[in-house]
Amino acid sequence: MAELSTIARPYAEALFASAKGDQASLASWSDLVNELAAVASLEDVRDALTDPRLSNEQRFELFCGLVKSALSDQARNFIELLVQNGRILLLPQIAEQFDLLKNQFEGSAVAQITSAYELSDAQVTELLAGLEKKFGLKLKPSVTIDSSLIGGVRVVVGDQVLDTSVQAQLARMRDTLAA
Predict the structure, then answer these.
(1) PANTHER family of this UniProt entry (predicted)?
(2) End-to-end C-alpha distance for the chain, whole angstroms
(3) Ramachandran bin of 30, using left for φ above 0, alpha for ψ from -120 to 50, beta for the remaining angles
(4) How far apart are CA 138 and CA 149, in angstroms?
(5) pLDDT per residue over 80-110, tens digit each?
(6) How far apart are CA 153 and CA 77, in angstroms?
(7) To the nearest whole percent, how much of the chain has pLDDT over 70?
(8) Which pTM value belongs to this model?
(9) Where along the chain do its domains lie?
(10) How far apart are CA 91 and CA 46, in angstroms?
């Protein structure tokens, strides 16, 4: 997967450089790129776009026809570039890279919070307040539930992991006792 993100990075960086002129443009491009990524992720679309009987022009028209949002000339040019270079199926990775660049630019990040039990809105807000102080970033929560944690939470922000789950504490105890 690292190879795909390496290939996708220059496209995301070029798109970001073009879009970062104003905040509204950045937000609209982010929404559009995520929509394009969702379309490109569909199995039927992936199969159709890799059909060797289709020309690049047919791939371009097919893909643009599947997108619900109105496409600006700049967006159509971007899609055409991806089709011409055989990179249209990299849109999910391009969207991921674009969102990372957007978050860096805005001084924010996504906090992937995994909890053993469902958290109330107040608990998430309280947890985010503490995490924002620790990381010095504005965090956007993405909360999931994993009962295998037994208790506590695991938080991933970028490449940093804070794991206060019971499962992690038991694993540390096991490692200490085995040493």
Answers:
(1) ATP SYNTHASE DELTA CHAIN
(2) 34
(3) alpha
(4) 26
(5) 999 999 999 999 999 999 999 999 998 999 9
(6) 44
(7) 98
(8) 0.77
(9) 2-103, 107-178
(10) 11
